[in-house]
Amino acid sequence: MSHAVAMALGRAAPLVLASALPYARSGEGGGRILTDRMSSWSLGGGLALALGLGAAVLGLRTVALLAGAAVATLLVALTARRRLGGVTGNVLG
């Protein structure tokens, strides 16, 4: 079951990236719809679902998975910001 929690946290990571970083390309692109339309409700809802699933399935062990996901998301964000100036659909996917 920890795989399901890891996948849920992994799918929540693009929500964080899309809300924290601008879209890196001019014009249209695969990730623009997410970066342009990300609301605080979408971000909060996605994170709440992932964390709720984790809490229900793994309890406090979710904290370790959350810490790993947060570090990985931070590293992706820093790399995307430095190399691209933001996110693209490929970064989010």
The count of helical stretches stands at 5
**Radius of gyration computed on alpha carbons:** 14 Å
What is the overall shape?
elongated
**SSE sequence, one letter per element:** HHHHH
Give the overall average pLDDT. Answer: 92
Tell me what portion of residues adopts beta-strand conformation: under 5%
How does the major sheet shape up?
A: none
Descriptive report:
This protein has 93 residues and is mainly α. It is built from five helices and no strands. The chain has helices at residues 2-20, 32-37, 40-58, 62-84, 89-92. Helix 1 packs antiparallel against helix 3 and helix 1 runs parallel beside helix 4. The mean pLDDT is 92.
Topology:
Layout: H1 2-20, H2 32-37, H3 40-58, H4 62-84, H5 89-92
What brief labels describe this structure?
93 residues, mainly alpha, 5 helices
Offer a concise description of the structure.
This protein is mostly helical. The protein contains 5 helices and no strands. The protein has helices at residues 2-20, 32-37, 40-58, 62-84, 89-92.
